[in-house]
Amino acid sequence: MESKKWTSCIFLILFAAFIWGYSLADMLSPGREYSELENRYLAGMPGFTFRSLLDNTYTLKIEEHTNDRFMLRDAWITVKSISETALLKIENNNIIYGKDGFMFEKRLTYDSEQLERNLNSLFFFAEKFPGNNITLMLVPTSDIVLADKVPRGLHNVEQTSIIEDIHRKAGESEIRSVGLLEPLCNNRYEKIDTDNYKTFYRTDHHWTTPGAYAAYAAYVQSLGLASAEPFDFPLHTVYDFYGTFYSKAKLFNAKPDTIRWFDIPVHSVTINGEPKDGLYNHEKWNQRDKYAAFLHDNNGITVLDSTGKQDGENKTRILVFKDSYGNAFAPFLTFNFDEVTVIDLRYFMEVESLMNSGDYDEILFLYGFPSFSNETSIVNLRL
Predict the structure, then answer these.
(1) Which of 29, 77, 200, 259 gives the lowest tally of CB atoms within 10 Å of its CB?
(2) What is the pTM of this model?
(3) Domain regions of the chain by residue span
(4) What is the pLDDT of residues 66-76, one digit of tens each?
(5) Which letter, b or e, does each residue of 151-161 get, where b requires 16 or more Cβ atoms within 10 Å of its Cβ?
(6) How far apart are CA 203 and CA 250, in angstroms?
(7) Collapsing DSSP states into helix, strand and coil, what is residue 378?
(8) CA separation for the pair 228, 235 (Å, rounded)
(9) Among candidate residues 324, 342, 370, the one with its CA nearest the CA of residue 207
(10) Separation CA 15–CA 13 (nearest Å)
């Protein structure tokens, strides 16, 4: 009996030593501002006020800071992933493991009030700048497009009916809509990839180059234009891409994705007024966030000049408001328009000045459903 008591004491002492030792090491370790693995800035130390303490916001932010910054966080996420896989769980950090290595995000709810605000902001824009040809395209998430890869029991938001209702409301405001579910489900671009399901990446929430091309083709054909054949130009492949879903779940045996990109010639690329060398940031192909190579990542205003024509030479122009889905999509528009202006409202607020200074043949709003239902920057259309 005495021996069991001593054994318990030893385990208790070792456990306490581990907790105190780890906590001390955690306090002394240099903090990280940015997680390359998760492709996001980590929560900082909140400022203290008695009001924030009383309304519990301070403690919540402290908890967020601690969760983001504790020592060896990435390694602990991996350990958690391995242990849960051993227990036959198919979920880690709200990421669901599907068939054939595909991952999906658990999304049981959405912000219906923010979606309504965003939709009303779009209607406000259309009324403020009448006479423009405006089209709305919402990208359904991969679990909707790749339904046969999703495990049973995942009851995510039923986006199809919600998007159809948005299209109906848009039509009442004389805004065209192009549905993307059918083009993305039916896309079979075997010249790019023999995997018929590669309209979305396995480990990332974005669509692939074939997915972006399928949406581009659906859009320009809705305008009565012919979609271009990109295979006239070199196709390149980048290997070992681990995307946002992998960053959250750290599935130890995840299958990496490949990225394909076309070497599409353009006359010039200007981002926030500064010239860039081509459509892609090639340095990103060798970094973890490889998708950020497309269109040099998210920026306020990007102008793609495909021909070098002057304004008086029957120049065709399109204005695209987008989230990150637009980065792989916009380069294809250079086949059909002389100038493509791309706006990310998260980093651009001068909408009225932009509209007053430009004469656009077409205006396109391209957003993933999660962004359109949650992103607060879309209300910048009212500025």
Answers:
(1) 29
(2) 0.81
(3) 1-25, 31-71, 103-382
(4) 555 555 566 66
(5) eeebebbebee
(6) 10
(7) helix
(8) 15
(9) 324
(10) 5
